[in-house]
């Protein structure tokens, strides 16, 4: 018994780990019934794996049996791996006992498709209902929407889950067709749209009637695999942008492809996952969501891919030197946000602090501005007088010369003599 | 001039009261535990007085919004000697200026409080994440901690709300006190460990019979969730510094 549950957990946790979403934020479920758990609006990462990723949820598949044969997936039908399946009670027990020991914030439940979509969705629904109704569990639940499941099942699941998600898998329809001929983006869009429409329906009702049950309070998210097919960064981010806009997604995740197959259509086994590229895509994502950038400003036909050696914010600034230098003491908040080396927190502090007097360099440093980076783009009370206007490329060279990338192991600016 | 206070929150507030009563000019506040008499500096010992402290706190509540009251208290909980002085100077600055003076991030005491509060809140958040309960034979969920700052007062309500249906104990080994939740309220406790008892690791005989199973399953899960091809030890250590490992089930070797 002991060994069997260990084996199942190993197989089904291993198969679920390529889903990168691990956020436990956005839920505000209160522990009102003197039961177990509540959800923090900000989420909690309870530990981090040795690859540095957050572990917040017990992320497992209900089963890794699957009728599909998607090339990029470890659980594909044709792959020779050990198969297992949890019973509903096993998942409930594991979740409750892990939660009670403060190991996790909640459950992330996904599944391979066995028999058909509705059959699978029904099982997932059983688990969440049991947790919420029988165990008085108020912790976080992230549930996968199974593409093709009936509206009734999805709607019922939404009453118990905090977040639901469906993965786009590939950034473009063409990429998806190449690796998973049985699937298409339309299958994903339909349930995403359905859940979104339900969420706005429930929110509208809430304005009129006080006691409306919550429906997917932490919203929806999706994931794209990066680097398995030859899309450009522009393709990826434009798709992400469309999905943020059309379905009010909370998050789009970008998952660097970890080679798991010998198929010649994809990077071969042993290829390093594209970690730096993934990092740059997330930076772009953040610029879109928190810094007021339009995706077209960062990626366009002239610049279809993100720079590898510098981050997208610096890259934008260097291409648009006509906006700089910015006067810290007079510029509006939106422009201050666009200065490389100044983040959201620093920008807010600057705007508050300058009401009490013009700001100096030492104050900016204390506030948390990365001054060595920002100094090329700003003027403050005691900025040194500069005779010469530097070109964007020169500034880039200055910044690269004094910064150390965590990814690039060799220094590109070093001249090679021999 | 140096003001010496007893290290309590009330003592700190009393010191502010005394300063405004005497107006001695520039003063540095130190706690008794770190005070060393200096030859040419006068010193004054503050007698903690609940009434005076309450008056200062009431005054601060009129001056500061909830978020800054919390930053103020968090900075005190950091137990850092320089932080006490910053809180002291900050209080004087706040009382001597118009409403809203706390958003002047150009002021050294304002930025200091914002920084100390951030460190303390981070430690509080870490404790909410890193505390690992072990279920004992009598059904109590027990956890040891030794946080960098005195965060027990800050985490109490989080655990009370979350684990409303299980009795638990969180014990701060460094500060020798803990919290006990008995299904209705949280109380402060001290435990007198018998001589030679291993405080850090509870003896297996005291454990619930299923505890070993869940410990193993959690360790297994932690291993399975890792993607070897993406190994990034630097990032891992940044998020989970080594000093926390001794209480983390998944990091404790079997």
UniProtKB/TrEMBL annotation, chain A:
Keyword annotations of the record: Iron, Iron-sulfur, Metal-binding, S-adenosyl-L-methionine
Pfam families: HHH_3, Radical_SAM
Cofactor list: [4Fe-4S] cluster
Domain of life: Bacteria
Keyword S-adenosyl-L-methionine recorded: yes
All copies of domain Radical SAM core, residue ranges: 61-190
Spans traversing the lipid bilayer: none
GO MF term list: catalytic activity; iron-sulfur cluster binding; metal ion binding
NCBIfam families, sorted: rSAM_link_UDG
Listed name of the protein: Radical SAM protein
Annotated organism of origin: Pedobacter ginsenosidimutans
TrEMBL record, chain B:
Ranges for domain DUF4130: 82-250
NCBIfam families: SAM_7_link_chp
The protein's name: DNA metabolism protein
Originating species: Pedobacter ginsenosidimutans
């Amino acid at each position: 018994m002991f060994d069997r549950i260990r084996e199942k957990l190993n197989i089904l946790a291993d198969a679920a780990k390529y889903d990168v979403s691990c956020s436990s934020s956005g839920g505000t479920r209160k522990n009102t019934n003197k039961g177990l758990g509540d959800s923090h609006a900000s989420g909690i990462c309870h530990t981090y794996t040795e690859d540095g990723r957050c572990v917040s949820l017990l992320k497992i598949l209900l089963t890794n049996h699957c009728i599909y044969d998607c090339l990029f997936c470890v659980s594909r039908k044709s792959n020779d791996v050990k198969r297992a399946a949890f019973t509903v009670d096993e998942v409930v027990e594991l979740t409750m006992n892990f939660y009670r020991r403060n190991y996790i914030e909640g459950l992330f439940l996904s599944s391979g498709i066995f028999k058909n979509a509705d059959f699978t969705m029904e099982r997932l629904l059983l688990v969440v209902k049991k947790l919420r109704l029988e165990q008085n569990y108020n912790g976080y639940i992230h549930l996968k929407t199974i593409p093709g499941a009936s509206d009734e099942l999805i709607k019922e699941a939404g009453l118990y889950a905090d977040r639901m998600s469906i993965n786009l898998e590939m950034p473009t329809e063409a990429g998806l067709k190449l690796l998973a001929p049985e699937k298409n983006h339309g299958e994903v869009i339909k349930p995403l749209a359905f859940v979104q429409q339900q969420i706005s329906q429930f929110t509208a009702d809430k304005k009129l009637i006080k006691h409306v049950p919550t429906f997917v309070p932490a919203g929806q998210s999706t994931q794209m695999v990066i680097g398995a097919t030859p899309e450009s960064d522009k393709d990826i981010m434009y798709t992400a942008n469309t999905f943020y806009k059309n379905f009010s997604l909370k998050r789009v995740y970008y998952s660097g492809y970890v080679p798991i197959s010998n198929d010649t259509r994809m990077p071969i086994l042993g290829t390093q996952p594209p970690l730096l590229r993934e990092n740059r895509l997330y930076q772009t994502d953040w610029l879109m969501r928190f810094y007021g950038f339009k995706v077209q400003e960062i990626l366009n036909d002239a610049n279809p891919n993100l720079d590898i050696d510098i981050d997208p914010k610096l890259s934008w600034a260097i291409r648009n030197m006509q906006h700089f230098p910015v006067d810290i003491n007079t510029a509006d908040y939106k422009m201050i946000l666009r200065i490389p080396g100044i983040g959201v927190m620093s920008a807010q502090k600057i705007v508050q602090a300058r009401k009490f007097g013009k700001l100096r360099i030492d104050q900016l440093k204390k506030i948390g501005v990365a001054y060595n980076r920002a100094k090329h783009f700003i003027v403050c009370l005691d900025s040194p007088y500069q005779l010469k206007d530097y070109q964007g490329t020169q500034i880039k060279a200055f910044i690269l010369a004094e910064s150390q990338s965590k990814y690039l192991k060799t220094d590109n600016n070093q001249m090679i003599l021999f | 001039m140096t003001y010496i206070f007893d290290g309590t929150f009330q003592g700190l507030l009393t010191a502010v009261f005394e300063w405004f009563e005497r107006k001695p000019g520039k003063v540095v506040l130190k706690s008794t535990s770190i005070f060393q008499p200096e030859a040419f500096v006068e010193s004054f010992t503050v007698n903690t007085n609940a009434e005076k402290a309450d008056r200062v706190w009431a005054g601060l509540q009129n001056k500061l919004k909830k978020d800054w009251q919390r930053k103020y208290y968090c900075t005190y909980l950091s137990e850092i000697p320089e932080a006490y002085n910053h809180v002291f100077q900050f209080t004087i600055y706040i009382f001597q200026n118009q409403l809203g003076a706390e958003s002047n991030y150009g002021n050294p005491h304002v930025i200091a409080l914002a920084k100390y509060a951030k460190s303390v809140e981070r430690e509080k958040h870490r404790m909410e994440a890193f505390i690992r309960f072990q279920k004992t034979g009598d059904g109590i969920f027990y956890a040891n901690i030794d946080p960098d700052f005195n965060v027990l007062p800050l985490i109490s309500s989080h655990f009370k709300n979350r684990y409303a249906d299980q009795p638990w104990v969180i014990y701060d080994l460094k500060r020798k006190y803990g919290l006990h939740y008995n299904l209705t309220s949280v109380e402060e406790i001290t435990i007198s460990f018998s001589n030679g008892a291993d405080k850090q690791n509870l003896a297996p005989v005291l454990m619930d019979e299923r505890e070993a199973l869940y410990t193993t399953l959690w360790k297994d899960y932690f291993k399975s969730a890792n993607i070897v091809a993406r190994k990034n030890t630097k990032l891992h250590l940044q998020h989970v510094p080594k000093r926390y490992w001794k209480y983390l089930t998944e990091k404790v070797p079997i």
